[in-house]
Amino acid sequence: MRFASTRMASPPEPGPYMPDLPAVPAWLNKGDNAWQLVAATFVGLQSMPGLVILYGSIVKKKWAVNSAFMAMYAYASTLIVWVLVGFRMAFGERLLPFWAKAGPALTQDFLVHRAVFPATAHYGRGGVLETPRTEPYYPEASLVLFEFEFAAITLVLLAGSLLGRMNIKAWMAFTPLWLLFSYTVGAFSLWGGGFLYQWGVIDYSGGYVIHLSSGIAGFTAAYWVGPRLKSDRDRFSPNNILLMIAGGGLLWLGWAGFNGGAPYAPNVTASVAVLNTNVSAATSLLTWTCLDVIFFGKPSVIGAVQGMMTGLVCITPGAGLVHTWSAMLMGMSAGSVPWFTMMILHKKSTLLMKVDDTLAVFHTHAVAGVLGGVLTGLLATPELCALDSPIPGARGVFYGGGVVQIGKQLGGALFVTVWNLVVTSAILLCIGLFIPLRMPDDQLMIGDDAAHGEEAYALWGDGEKFDLTRPETTRTGGGSGAAREDTVEQRLTSMGARGVTIQL
């Protein structure tokens, strides 16, 4: 008895779920925190190195460095602006129906406390609290990092519309301004507790906040910056398709963190979202490829990557809210509707042909994002919505939600479209007063060397094959008018191809 009473009086043995103050307070769930950090890293890998590799390889050789650096710079500049003021403008206390109060996310007092979305409490009729504010079980620092990765990839995606001609100095000025005056508005309005969030617009993980925004802003920016050189528009072959596939693969797998981290916990919704994400991407890729074969006779690898992208984008607004068979339908739609707008409608539209959207971000992100938002308004199930939506009884039209949900989805898309069109135009027009938005034509002829003084490869040309069937030497005129024999190496050097190894 004495032994038993001693055992009962002793403190409990420490375990994996016990608080360990102050490093592990009672409110912190180690599993939730670990998953959110992993999910943030997955999303980060989509940008660095995923889109950096994709951009650097999908463009002509002379633009490889510039394209990759635009993505890298956007990622770095976004982080600094985000922790200085951006995070709290998007997820802080309400200032306006579409904007939160600015403030830093730099101090220990703020970052080590429990994460919270101050404006996300939802009140019903009569001011009755229906849904309490969102408070994940990990510190604010984890949330700041996770949401930063979303902000960064939005700007990196936007850059895809401007590759091959934008003045890098203008891009350096544009990224922080667009983050502050455009991205934070969409993020707060739809995620942070703003008016679209409270109204019941469904955007599970960024179909509107990220993809519609980047597509509309990219297309608008492409209009103001101006087109590439005609020679680049006519022929812009990738310099390395294998690396392009590798970058696309990182983007695909990284989407597990993109949609899997959106519930802010590794719960049932996260599992459904990750599965649906992969199913939609695969279905869209196959649909796009089949359409290429049917209409053009060959499966395009670039087209397959675009189909993968549209499938990922389309499922994002409803990844954790729809059945997996619905994800397949969304993938089929994502592989066909943007394919039609890009391959058919684009060539018939004067505006679309005039605006030089380098990587067709308008089609792969804006069109696919709106498509996903509308389909989510049709296919979202009440059971899954109950796990994630702040609006009690939220559901798609096919499950009794009524056409009002489609109206909300279209209304949200309209707000994001108009805001990005106006704000992006205003920012670029202001920057253009001080910095030319487009590189001059003589520098565009050169590319990376003119913009950075660096080149990606010591290889010949922009994908052209050097003709080895020509004679080993050629006769050219010397300085005195006498004929001179040049070797293959001398001919390559004179043509600006340094460091080439020719296998004979």
UniProtKB/TrEMBL annotation:
Pfam family, one: Ammonium_transp
Protein name: Ammonium transporter
Matches recorded under PANTHER family: AMMONIUM TRANSPORTER 2, AMMONIUM TRANSPORTER MEP2
All copies of domain Ammonium transporter AmtB-like, residue ranges: 34-457
Gene3D superfamilies noted in UniProt: Ammonium transporter AmtB like domains
Keyword match Transport: yes
Membrane topology recorded in Swiss-Prot or TrEMBL: Multi-pass membrane protein
Main location, first listed in the record: membrane
